[in-house]
Amino acid sequence: MFDLAWMAWTWQTGLFFAGIASLLIVMTLLAIYSPETERVGILRIPTTRGDRLFISLLGSAFIHLAWLGLVGLDLWWASGLSLLYAALVFRTV
Amino acid sequence: MTKTVNNKAWFLVLPVFLIVAFSAVLPLMTVVNYSVQDTFGNNQFFWNGVGWFQELLDPTTDLGGRFFDSLWRTLLFSAIILMIEVPLGILVALSMPREGWTVALSLVLMALPLLIPWNVVGTIWQVFARGDIGLLGWVVNHLGIDYNYTGDPLDAWITIVVMDVWHWTSLVALLCYAGLKSIPDAYYQAARIDGASRWAVFRTIQLPKMRRVLLIAVLLRFMDSFMIYTEPFVLTGGGPGNATTFLSIDLVKLALGQFDLGKAAAMSLVYNLIILAICWVFYTIMTNVDAQKERVEA
């Protein structure tokens, strides 16, 4: 087997990447079994589910960073806020 | 006509996907792993949670202070060179010949600085701007202006900005020139019949036609200047003091100079996120300018 010690894995980062990977798998399956068309939302740009996922993930990263920089620890609040933000993006953008 | 969509074609991208996975995704994953740990070498890592990120985002700490300082320096640098290179590039493109043998000559001349490797550009300017043996530095000093880019922060900034303008303005000019060449003669004839002034022609014909290439030029120049490393590294090494230490230079100092892998990983992830966000904004604007135009034309 490959020696992956140099990658310095931790179970937390493993969980994080597993989450991202499963999101991508879900999106792929959705794209196969329930194809969609672009729609124009409040940003006035045509977006697909994938675009909205990207906007949600990127925004969530910034929400976490802003929370860490401005509010402090206890990132669960930031995660909650990110989920809310993602829901909003998927509904309206 | 209906097109059949065959998603099996995606398998053709598989080799590229594998290469990118090895060259980009795995290293990026490793950086994420590093960013939540600390190491004292020997491949031993200790969990640090979001500690590095917290330190990085707090300007009162050592790490946060230098991160925000470098970030502002880099943003200022990008803003300055965009404000100079874009108008200058347009001006150069407008004054380039449209026909005759001078076209080829000016295109070659414009392309010359773009062909020189970054580290060579840095070396050229390092020698050129020296007060003792460099033509520029010697002349400026003998004009009675005290100029020393290795000792004075302002001089160092001016030298780096002028160097970047020298190196990259032709890219903007060539892109704009391509945009100008695509305007049919009929537009100019119509403008002449209407008695339009030179400014009116520029405002209503040339500038709108250059919009797309200008967006690409701004995006390219912004990304390049925001990630600039080689030229200032060769010219000033980030000095005097930290006056020209841009984000990329600071990152290398942190990662390879001090071998603070955790801190450097946190910094590069935030750096990466900023670039990703800006790229997305530019890309969205660019693709939608096209889409809107298509809708209008349809």
UniProtKB/TrEMBL annotation, chain A:
Is Transmembrane among this UniProt entry's keywords? yes
Domain of life of the native organism: Bacteria
What keywords appear on the UniProt entry?
A: Membrane, Transmembrane, Transmembrane helix
Transmembrane regions listed in the UniProt entry: 6-32, 53-70
Designated name of the protein: Predicted small integral membrane protein
Please give one Pfam family short name: DUF2160
The record's section on InterPro entries has: DUF2160_TM (IPR018678)
Automatic annotation (TrEMBL), chain B:
What cellular-component terms does GO give this entry? plasma membrane
Q: Give the membrane topology, semicolon-separated if more than one.
A: Multi-pass membrane protein
InterPro entries the UniProt entry points to = MetI-like (IPR000515), MetI-like_sf (IPR035906), Sugar_ABC_transporter (IPR052730)
* The keyword DNA repair belongs to this UniProt entry's keyword annotation: no
Enumerate the UniProt keywords alphabetically: Membrane, Transmembrane, Transmembrane helix, Transport
Any keyword Transmembrane helix? yes
Record's family? Belongs to the binding-protein-dependent transport system permease family.
Q: What's the protein name? A: Glycerol transport system permease protein
